[in-house]
Amino acid sequence: MRVPGRLLLQTSRASRGRDRSPGRDGRRVRRGRRVTDAFPRPLPPPPRLPFLSAAAAAGPRRSAYAPRPMSGKQEPAATSRGDAVKYGELIVLGYNGSLPDGDRGRRKSRFALHRRAKANGVQPSSSHITTAMQECKAVSSKEQHSISYGLSRSHVVVVEYVHDLDQDMFLVGRSGEAPVDFVVMDTAPWKPPGGGGGDGGGGGSSTGSGGSPTAQSTISRFACRILCERSPPHRARVYAAGFDSSNNIFLGERATKWRDADGSMDGLTTNGVLVMHPRGGGGGGGGGELSELVQPGVWREVSVGGKVYTLRETRSAQHRGCLVETESNELQDGSLVDLCGATLLWRTAEGLRRSPTVRHIELLRQELNAARPQCPVGLNTLAFPSAAQQQWRGGGGGGGAGGGGGRHVARPDARQPWAYLTCGHVHGRHDWGLREEAAAAGAGGTGGTGAAWQRQQQEQRRECPVCRSLGPYVALSLGCEAGFYVDGEAPTHALTPCGHVCSERTARYWAAVPLPHGTHAFHATCPFCAAQLTGEQGFVRLIFQGPVD
């Protein structure tokens, strides 16, 4: 019978002939069973958080993305921190708990939305056509919000907005000006360690740790705005474009814009704001496959007015897609918002309450290390580093995963688990297994300890000494961002090619989510480091070796 949270380890051949041996407390332990049974005080198994299906959801606002609560007690959808009600959180994909250089001010890897002391929401009021924008009071006044649609050089439609006391507004964008609540930079593509920047907390930003930009940003300075209802059920809606420091939004002549059937103006931003809502399926409880419980939805584009359309042919095409009347801009738990350069995950307060926490993931790491997995060849005990250790080592000694973004010099750790991504066998760090042709091509680089050696292991094909399979050989690192997990099961699978370790359902879910890439491409990506997933499935089941003493 399978026990949730317990890790099954395989024993070596040397221990197969001995059926029983004394444990550390004098008890006799049958080999081949769970290693945690050999400890006098084993850690308690983590609480099971079955995946919540749409069929089992109690209410229309309960998403299939969130796990089932650990108790039958119902709590309000929003949690309070003092007098501030929490609406939810926005988490940037590609970072493992924090930015590479650390979270600073409004620029961070996750942003919590709380009810403001004073409502600042707005809603459209009236519109008119003007020939002189400079003389328009709605545009020149910094106290009033407005959206201007440029029809020609001499004609502009100005839509005036008035305050809405029932909503709070939050602005997201690249600009560091005061109106922007959440500053988001481009998430750089993942690179193997030593390939031009630490992986650590994620792909990093387009400005890098040195401050010099590597590419022009594709994220708008005022990318989008999110309006949350101040009263339950605290629904959140996303709109393209955000108000600048003068409380204005301007769509020029070349921007895609139109007049709806009711006479109201609407439009799209240059690179667009895309949204995808997860779809819950049948199946119930948490016993089925992930694909039976929740599946990725279809990417849509949201307009400045909040309507949903099919995607354009390319990201910045002039012609809009078709209106999708059956979908809305209302965010669900697990919805993704793409800003053309960075993708945000929306987690509701209710969804976060039902999800694993950072403490829960740390307990899973401790239980995994308490099982004392060993290298099947070197027989040395392996241990996953904590999030703080990953940050200090800038990725835990290389490989392809980490948690700190290379803020410090990488220090190889002999206890760091490594794995062959073709078969999943977990080993310690070693130099053997290089094919002759690979060794000849990389002569002079093997046996090192720096970034060049780490990059060589990532690029070259290594032979697993257990099963003789060929494939990449990378360091393993635990995914520390709790918001990316879809359940609370044990971390038994690693994403490829980066080596971030998470639960099976979490790996299956993100391997099935196509994230926007470029102007019209979509790829499955590791949520912890923004690495494009490779291999047949995008992940591999890890095979650990139990202790032989």
From TrEMBL:
Taxonomic superkingdom: Eukaryota
Keyword match Transcription: no
Segments for region (Disordered): 1-81, 187-216, 389-411
An example molecular function term from Gene Ontology annotations: ubiquitin protein ligase activity
Annotated Pellino RING domain residues: 368-390, 412-549
Biased composition (Gly residues): 193-211, 393-407
Low complexity: compositionally biased ranges: 50-69
Keywords associated with the record: Phosphoprotein
Pfam families in the cross-refs: Pellino_FHA, Pellino_RING
Stretches with biased composition (Basic and acidic residues): 16-26
Span of domain Pellino FHA: 82-362
UniProt GO BP: protein polyubiquitination; regulation of Toll signaling pathway
Family statement: Belongs to the pellino family.
Protein name: E3 ubiquitin-protein ligase pellino homolog 1-like isoform X1
Organism, scientific name: Petromyzon marinus
Phylogenetic lineage: Eukaryota, Metazoa, Chordata, Craniata, Vertebrata
Gene transcribed to yield this protein: LOC116954019
